[in-house]
Amino acid sequence: MSFTFGYSPFLLAACILAAGALTVWSYRRTVPPLSGWRKAVPATLRFVALTTILFLLAQPVLRRVDEIERNPILAVLVDNSESLQVTTKRDGTSDNESPSLDARSSIRSALQSVESLDGAVRVFAFDRDVRPIGTSPNATDSLRLDGARTNLAAAIDAARTELQGENLACIALLSDGQYNAGRNPLYTAERSPVPIHTVTLGDTTGARDVQVRRVTTNDIAYVGTELPVQAAIRATQAAGEQVTVRLSRDGNVLDNTTVTLPSGTSERTVQLSFTPENAGLQSLTVSVSSIEGEATERNNAASKTVRVLESKRRVLLLAGAPSPDVGALRRILSRDTDTELTARVVRQDGRYYDGQLPEDLTEFDVLALVGYPSTSVSDGDLRRVADAVSDGTPVVFFMQPTADLGRLSAFSDALPVSLDRARSSSIEALIRPTERGSQHPIMDVENAGTAPWDQLPPLRYNESRWSTSPDARILATIQVRSMELDDPALVIRSRVGQRSAALLASGTWRWTNLPDDLAPARTVWPGVISNLVRWVAARQDTRPVRVQPVQQVFAGSERVEFTGQVYNESQEPISDANISVEITAEDGTEYPLTMEPANNGQYNLDVGVLPEGTYSYSATAVRGNTTVGSDTGEFSVGELTVEYRETRADPVLMRQIAERSGGVALLGPEADRLSEVVQQTEGFKATTFQQEQETELWRTLLFLALILACLAGEWTLRKRFGLV
């Protein structure tokens, strides 16, 4: 115990001496004269009051240090996930016949062994989340082993957080080692300040099983177009067995095939297909028939959701004359599975190759004008195309030497560039993306290498003078020899109701005929064309109410969540609207809900867990008594089989967790040795720490009461003795 002061104690002593001297001087002569105790008592009271005030003004602090002993704590983390129902019990019981007895037995043995430890034991059950349970071995009776996900890293972190500030000496992790959520637990183990001892629950040898490992197909399909579906079937200890693989939707079989399973543990790819007849969100299920004695049938099916559209993107390519660029563009667009191409090339007499100009040009999603219009285009056709563009049809202009630049003014209101001065000459120029342009989705081409644009040959750049509209965006400029110029090469524009783009260079056919040493750059031009068509065809979202699920497909036992936005007619966010959402299941069950406002026109909704199936929803936003707008959509919830994908425990991962954290790895039959392992842990012992307590005495009411009592006592005595 000690005192500290905010000021020098010597100054305090001097002030106390001064207070004593002042008190003596004050009572040296009194009127009327006093003697003996009559003078000494009030003088003493004054001195005590002054001394106390000076003492408190020095801001005294009383410090006390206590030594406290804390017993070591063992945190036991018990896996409560569904995977334990598959990785344990190999005596031929079915899924419904308590296949988890071995896991519970090992857990009970581990808890019984640590009951007698000289320290505290805290037990937590975990799957996707972590929660404390009782420390009694009978606590295993509360484990249902039904967790839909396993997050080992979160469990380890939660134990440290829950016991922060206590003497956590080590962690015991009881699991089969199969995790499917969160980060890799090895990273968490490496940073663990205490050892993690592991007990591997379940069979480590694997079991007889057949399962649908994954289903692969396009996310987008089209009505009337065959959709291939690829399924990976994994078999273990099922050599020579014949199984039937089915593709179904809403219980109706769309395709099936018979497969002979290979030996050992291996995967086999199965090709299935079907032709969608209706548009909308469709949930496809691939299932494989069961085999006798397999570990579980819960992994015999997997689902995939596909959005079926009425038709592909319809692109009308209009070329002013035949050219290598036209041929290259036709090949690229015709190979795009999401594009339905119609091409018309103008002949010298004004007619078209491949047929006449379509009657209704507005039925196309994109107009690709390749050197169009040329001098051969009739005024009537040019007027029809210009009317379609002015009606809002997205348009892309590709510069060609045959283009009649004077007649290009028919599209000047729609294109992102306008002609200032026309010239027929052209120069060789390299195309260089701008800094902002390189980040645009149009320029984002998969598998294009690190610097694909540097590998592309130059194009012919028309020397006409172009000016860009104020709302246009330049994605690429030109480089002539070693000089980079600001002249636009690829320009885009997005306005309400229409998007447009212009490439002001020709000779792109060279980019489709690259030699083998430039093979990584071969995907650049096809990728840019695909992205460009997709971007200009995308409709801008000007809806006042926009409500959508955070993802189109939710796994079983995964919480369904929505986000929403509300805007007024000026596209300004509305934060005080009331959004009601009604979700409807396939069987007609309805879920009426209300979204919660977040901020700045944003709204959130947590629906919770929904049964497997496809759902539709409608949302209506109301502000006061006025309906702002509505929105509709679809989403699906699939069956969760991730916990049943692995039929054996993973002792390797459990051993690595133990080794990286300084712990010991045990197998299930060795669970009763957990107490022995914990007692041998170097840090598992009581620790003594010093707890310091500080009391600021000048804030204590006791001293204020003392000062008031002394001053009141002195005043009373002075009045009683008649002092003046």
From TrEMBL:
Coiled coil: none annotated. The chain crosses the membrane at residues 6-28, 40-62. InterPro entries: Class_I_gatase-like (IPR029062), Ig-like_fold (IPR013783), vWFA_dom_sf (IPR036465). Keywords: Membrane, Transmembrane, Transmembrane helix. This is VWFA domain-containing protein. The lineage of its organism: Bacteria, Pseudomonadati, Rhodothermota, Rhodothermia, Rhodothermales.
